[in-house]
Amino acid sequence: MSQEAWKILSDIIKSYSYNEYMESRRLAIAESFISNNTTFETGVLLSDESCKSIIEWTSKYINDKILDTVDGLPEWQVTVVQKIMEKLCTVTEIRNIVQIAYDKYPSISNADFYIRKYGDGARENLPWHADQTVVSSTIHLSNYFEYEGGDFVFIEGKEIKRSSELKKGCGVFHNGDVIHSIEPVTKGTRWSLVSFFFAEDGQGNEWCTDENKVIF
Questions:
Q1: 33 three-class SS
Q2: I need a labelling partner for 96 at 20 to 30 A (CA). Which of 3, 14, 173, 182 fits?
Q3: Region 6-25: what's the mean pLDDT?
């Protein structure tokens, strides 16, 4: 077991206040820490045209006004409702992303979508943390050779691992309790579409009405 990985786990668990809910979160994160097969990569889910459309639209609205809950620094993120996502790319592409999450974790019923920017005047990295989701995904809107650094790094099977050099439109899905981070982008710009999927009693904004439902 990596000593660095163990220290990261210990630091994150210590950061949770002591109450019944947070105790369950600590246990879930610890279980993911020792488990394998909590993270998987996909082929192309978004076309080049869709990636370009998402970036161009987001560039009009993204700013440093909202602070991230992970580290208190500007998010450099835009929250996007499902209907806009389906216009920026296609209904089929968004529903394919949701279907992958649902096939792996059938308990999901709510989803949130975010577009993130790293480098080029935006945030450089994202520290180690775990999402309060059932499953999360990151779809690359930039090719790995368009920037330096910015790797998606995660802990699985007690070891620190990193994703492959994924091409534009490809994605990484992971259990929401997986500890992960984005390493500093040292050159260029890294854009990504992040999706958070929640259980029926979760906190997601999407699928609140029949009008917003994606796959049901």
A1: helix
A2: 182
A3: 85
203-209 contacts at long range (C-beta below 8 A, 24 or more positions apart): 203/110, 203/132, 204/109, 204/110, 204/111, 204/112, 205/79, 205/81, 205/110, 205/112, 206/81, 206/82, 206/110, 206/111, 206/112, 206/113, 207/82, 207/109, 207/110, 207/111, 208/110
Nearest to 150 by CA among 189, 115, 114: 189
**How many Cβ atoms sit within 10 Å of the Cβ of residue 192?**
24
Over residues 162-169, the mean pLDDT reads 92
The answer regarding whether domain 3-212 maps to CATH 3.40.50.670 reads no
49 token code pair: 């045209």
Dist. CA 161–CA 158, nearest whole Å: 9
**Cβ–Cβ < 8 Å for 183, 151:** yes
pTM: 0.89
